[in-house]
Amino acid sequence: MSKPPRYFWIPLILSLILVPAGFWYVGWSKSGEGAGLYSRQWVPDAMFAYWNPTAFYKPVDTIVGKFEGEQCVACHTSVTPGIVKDWQASRHSHAEKKVYCSNCHGNDHQALHMPTPDICATCHATQHNQFEDEKRFGFPSHALAMERALDAKHFVDKPKAEVTACLHCHSVASKCDSCHTRHRFSAAEARRPEACITCHSGPPHPDDETYFHSKHGQLYLAQGAQWDWSKPLRKGNYPAPTCAYCHMQDGKHQVADKSIWKFGIQKINPLSSGNEIKRKQWIKLCSDCHEPEMAAKSLTALDQERKRAWDKLFQAESLLKGLRRKSLLYPSARQRPPYPGDAPDKLWPREAIGFLEGQSSAFYNVSPIERNYFEMWYFSNLGAYKGAAHGDASFVAKGHQAMELSLESIRKQAETLRTLGKTQPTNIWLNGEYTDYNREHN
Amino acid sequence: MSKPPRYFWIPLILSLILVPAGFWYVGWSKSGEGAGLYSRQWVPDAMFAYWNPTAFYKPVDTIVGKFEGEQCVACHTSVTPGIVKDWQASRHSHAEKKVYCSNCHGNDHQALHMPTPDICATCHATQHNQFEDEKRFGFPSHALAMERALDAKHFVDKPKAEVTACLHCHSVASKCDSCHTRHRFSAAEARRPEACITCHSGPPHPDDETYFHSKHGQLYLAQGAQWDWSKPLRKGNYPAPTCAYCHMQDGKHQVADKSIWKFGIQKINPLSSGNEIKRKQWIKLCSDCHEPEMAAKSLTALDQERKRAWDKLFQAESLLKGLRRKSLLYPSARQRPPYPGDAPDKLWPREAIGFLEGQSSAFYNVSPIERNYFEMWYFSNLGAYKGAAHGDASFVAKGHQAMELSLESIRKQAETLRTLGKTQPTNIWLNGEYTDYNREHN
Amino acid sequence: MSKPPRYFWIPLILSLILVPAGFWYVGWSKSGEGAGLYSRQWVPDAMFAYWNPTAFYKPVDTIVGKFEGEQCVACHTSVTPGIVKDWQASRHSHAEKKVYCSNCHGNDHQALHMPTPDICATCHATQHNQFEDEKRFGFPSHALAMERALDAKHFVDKPKAEVTACLHCHSVASKCDSCHTRHRFSAAEARRPEACITCHSGPPHPDDETYFHSKHGQLYLAQGAQWDWSKPLRKGNYPAPTCAYCHMQDGKHQVADKSIWKFGIQKINPLSSGNEIKRKQWIKLCSDCHEPEMAAKSLTALDQERKRAWDKLFQAESLLKGLRRKSLLYPSARQRPPYPGDAPDKLWPREAIGFLEGQSSAFYNVSPIERNYFEMWYFSNLGAYKGAAHGDASFVAKGHQAMELSLESIRKQAETLRTLGKTQPTNIWLNGEYTDYNREHN
């Protein structure tokens, strides 16, 4: 047996050093206050005390003393009667063993805490575990919403006012009252679409627009006030489906396992064996009311719509890749201003085009033509997808028309770049004003 | 009595040949599956089985046997309990002679059919006849929605994803459950605006936006859940009007006969004797609640708004016609790519400008300046009209500002074209990418 | 004691002549029919009979006779049953001393009048006085909405269709049924957001969008139909706040005294002693449900958002002022077409940039770069403000992104103007088409 050669030992030794070093680096970068790879560089605004209470909430020491159950209620009936009424209407106050303010907030008034998901989980372990289980399916998912958002470089670079706004919704990962509002924490409330659409609206995820424009949504709008929302989300209980009826059947707190086209952001094979199982799950669900053939045809129509969308997106990607080969994209990956903590990308910069290459970083800091593709992909494409999935024809039509226009514009820009043989001038999405703005405030 | 000259016989003989030939040609072209002049060239998507069931629905042969009334209900109570509950809540199940599933779908489970308007008409002949009666008023109308849409050439040419989306709504011609949803088929439901606005929303007919922004709509939104919707649409029964209250008074299933400005797409004489009669009908209707003078003044305000809109539109048309006279529109009618089945237009091509000349074909395949006019006319103008008609001031303001901007842009483009003496370069709306795209898929 | 010099007497004499002359001139210019400095030049549309009934309503002399109370009701039960039912459901008909039609409209049927705020004030003096009291806080305010709008020069110049639409809402100053609709005049109705948002929607004041996208608004949408709206707007009575709960606490009919950032249209010092008092009022109000710290942090977040917005706006203003110093703005103040009644500005024309200099006149009649700033300030900035104030993160993000884009565009235009050393060509916002259009119709 001969001695292993150098090309065996060198990679092995490098791995033994670099892999732990990488883990250490990521761990260190995440060890600041709050979530995300840049937690040491990104200082959140004041409201984070409530959006990520585990990391940022600091109790107010106005009242001295330790209080239990009825004592809290007695005093707060006059201080904050509204939330006491909410609690009185909740199952917490009707349980045999009542769940009092102090059970969730603690009883030392100078060291009160906000109820984090872990605290809710002491009683609602099933739901919490289902919620956490979404992490298996990667991002986007509710449970990873805050952490993965703050892993993105653009959160450190973009103007604080914009990214703080994003995180208002991403705080769903850190608190249960995004859907079950204080202090009724009602299951009935969360069964209604309004619980979801505070966040699920507008580009890139026009879920409320597309649902409310569908016949399902119109039935809800017209008649929902008369439905009995205390019933579980199960066959026969509701005259029309809501967000939760389809995506959280039987109240399951995990919405990621039935998604075929995921979130519309990448092309998938809709006929893979895994997706055939999901398809059957959908057909079974839709058959609560419709004939199975109709469900199957609707899913086929969705596949057709998706195929048409990706035909257009791939045409655009192909044009962009052609430009990249001829070095006609400015800035090239090497010319982009480095992000904070961007060591790996500085060593090995590369231009990302399309989802698989990491287009999500194309929010800004890219050439105009790449930004156009980003908008085509992230706004128009996702709008069309949601329209097709939720039964709103107008969003399909609008989204596809917008994609046609983008493709045409990308095609012309590409032609100009190839003809002139030179790159586009500096612009808003580049390292200039937009990117630099407020960097010191983040 | 002299012998009739040649110019008498030749046209006569030609007519005797060509008129029947024309009828035969149109009949043949419409004789494919589905509706429209291009039914032999345009293959619809899978969902058409439900959107135009008469032409496309094929029964599923899963269950063997013939079933009647209670048997259907017995089994479907566990298979699809929701729709059985809907039926149980309907008048169909409370009638002395119950209307069972089998009465509408047939009773051979391997040869079930979808209930088409004709089937509904066996009991609801009055409503069906009123609905069909809309055809007298031409298109746009509900009863011609599917056929006339598919008579348009652009349905064969445009990307399938877009036109399929359009037809989702145009299927109103082929099925009654666009407004009375399965399986309650409720009159009360169709009295509420949500029954209409699944389709009547967005450009070019922002009916929901303009109604819901009006005071009428705001009253509905705030209080509608408490109104008694079982009452007929008649004076004194509703605190504020809805779509159907004004447009389908007393439940009349025909909405075309009271319209003065039609759908805002052409200039009309609002003071013609026919329109004076319609005006009196409107004033009588509005006087259910308002003083007649207010109704008259509102209609005058609408006339003023329309006159201002058409002043602007005619200025734009006049500019376009000037360009056409000097052959400054590219593509000219002869240069446009022929549409499928476009024989008559190939023999005698002409540039259409404005509604009376057929501007509805200006969706695409035209010069940029003509497309600008199309958008001014079809989106901004119609938005302003709906705002004025439904009492939403903001849409009037937005629409007129948009028309000013379009007019200004058209004026400048026209000036440039006249100055340079040459036509505009190829573009998205022309025979290029957009028009060609997916032609093979249609 | 020496004789006062000439520079003492001349100004004194001039003042004694010019100040009364100025007052006389303003008084004379306002003495036309209707409100506003241009009431002699601006003839309103027909609907003003109802929007400003004090000035324009003329009774219809169809019915002869004088009628009292029950007589009106007896006849109108068949003529207009809907509004009689409304009245019967109102407190007016249940009061010990009933308020009949004739009490508000008069009893001579040939000389009926519309009930103006003064007539309502005979019983509801407290509310009317509170409403009028808003005038102390200047414009924008409800009580000055009609008059101040018609003081603006652009109302005389802009196309009538657009400005008439604006005044539909501004009529709130002239009639109480903008919020308490005929003939129920319900307090409960006005407590719901729909009473406000007929007007408070869309740019520049997207109050409905931002409220309805907030968690407060979503709770209202989902559950509001079940709340007891007869209760006063007071701590503990409502599960979530509405427009009126926060802005018209305890039913106070004056919304101007608690506003810190006013309407977002100018930068203020949020920490002035006056604003510290308002801040305490807000914290007290929010503490009806939230912990005071959360309210304080929310206000701080609002201050941060505002500071960031004004950083951007001041950068844009500074660029514009630089251009003005070098005479690179076209049209300059001297080149703009004079407004009607524009004597003072003709004597001393000046370019207005930013709010304090009167940017509100930049709707039109300005250079493109100034219009861009106007849109940045009036639409994007105000949208972001409303989002931050009402708890809708998406409007903050959208508004700030739009401001970044505007700032970038302004920066580039400024660079081009400085480089080329010449001014921009004529455009839509200038004296050309837009401004001239319809001048004769106003």
Mean pLDDT of chain A: 86
What would the principal axes of the Cα set say about the shape of chain A? globular
Count the beta strands of chain A. 0
Quaternary structure annotation: homotrimer
In DSSP terms, counting alpha (H) and pi (I) runs of 4 or more, how many helices of chain A? 23
| Beta strand % of chain A | under 5%
Q: Percent range for helical residues of chain A?
A: 40-55%
Q: How many angstroms does the end-to-end distance of chain A come to? A: 58 Å
Explain what you see.
Three copies of one chain form a homotrimer. With 442 residues, chain A is mainly α. Among the domains of chain A are: 187-252, no CATH class; 295-441, no CATH class. Chain A is built from 23 helices and no strands. The first copy, chain A, has helices at residues 6-29, 48-51, 53-56, 69-79, 81-88, 91-94, 101-105, 117-121, 125-133, 145-151, 154-157, 160-170, 187-191, 194-197, 207-213, 215-223, 243-247, 273-286, 292-325, 343-347, 368-390, 393-420, 433-436. In chain A, helix 15 (207-213) packs across helix 16 (215-223). Chain A is globular, with a radius of gyration of 25 Å. The N and C termini of chain A lie far apart (58 Å). Chains in contact: A-B, A-C, B-C.
Structure characteristics:
homotrimer, 442 residues, mainly alpha, 23 helices
